[in-house]
Amino acid sequence: MGITIQEASRISGLSTHTLRYYEQIGLIHEVGRDTGGRRSYTQPDLEWLDFLTKLRTTGMPIAEMCRYAELRRQGPATATERRHMLEAHRERVLEKIAQLSEDVSILDYKINFYHALENS
Q: pLDDT tens per residue, the chain (120 residues)?
């Protein structure tokens, strides 16, 4: 028994428009339908949406996400290629974290500078 697109939207944090778009471009498979023809999302669908959200939040481009989704549909034979994609993405995320850490250090320096200026 699945849940409606509105419930899937609420749980995933993605708009119903985004869910339909993801289906349209192949990021998610064609979602099952209930007897009334309405989309019916399952727990595995929600878990996949959660993973896609994490990929997107960490900056993976939609085109790369679509490639990953296509490989996933092809099954276990593509596991190595999918792992390589995730490893490369992880490296980009770690580089971004390192850059952000440097940026925060500069902000901290300036904040401390202004504190010292205000207290002198």
A: 799 999 999 999 999 999 999 999 999 988 989 888 899 999 999 999 999 999 999 999 999 999 999 999 999 999 999 999 999 999 999 999 999 999 999 999 999 999 999 999
Nearest to 28 by CA among 37, 41, 9: 41
SS3 39: strand
Say how far apart CA 71 and CA 69 lie, in whole Å: 5
| Phi then psi dihedrals of residue 33, to 5 deg | -120, 150
Task: Tell me the whole-structure pTM to 2 decimals.
Answer: 0.85
CA R_g for the chain: 20
Q: How far apart are CA 109 and CA 28, in angstroms?
A: 45
Q: Which amino acid is at 120?
A: S
**Helix runs in 1-120, H state only:** 5-12, 16-24, 43-57, 62-74, 79-118
Tokens read off for 57: 């939040």
Alpha-carbon distance of 89 to 81, in angstroms, equals 12
